[in-house]
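Page 42, continued from yesterday. The earlier attempt failed because a stray header line got pasted into the input along with the sequence. Redoing it now with the clean sequence only.
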Amino acid sequence: MKYKNFETERLLIRPTEIRDAEFIYELLNTPKWFQYIGDRQVKSVHDAAVYINNKMTPQLKRLGYSNYTLIRKKDQVKIGVCGLYDREGLEGIDIGFALLPAFEKNGYALEAALRIKKAAFEEFGIELISAVTTKENKASQMLLEKLGLKLAGTTLLPNDDEELLVYKIEKITG
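This time it went through. Structure tokens are written below.
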């Protein structure tokens, strides 16, 4: 099946594939990923390929959207991810993003997330987007607010013991 790719002024946004395993391994082992998202036990490029196959590809096949790799147009460098996730224990579809440290604070996450949010509402028929973040992750909170999401409360996700902030935005109809 052919899945949707997206484009912004500076980025190519395409579903994450096995060929991205080396990049995913690098991203999932950055200090901020561990601090704010958690240890996904991806200890090798092979583990990253298994993670893509088991965690990302099934949702892509089931719903037509999942995790997207962000590629900078000017040099084809993979800089981060952004995606829509059907997360257990969370109402709506979760929007998430993460960048390699060298590419933070350049507006890439906002640029990608705005395009993915637009696709969620206009192309995938999603009615409610949610997002979770740790209370300490101020950068993520600010980005979610720039996307138009509003703080809606807190939650504990299944198999997690940290209370997370929940942000939400509904599709505007009519």
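Notes: The chain has a mean pLDDT of 95.
Reminder to self: strip header lines before submitting.
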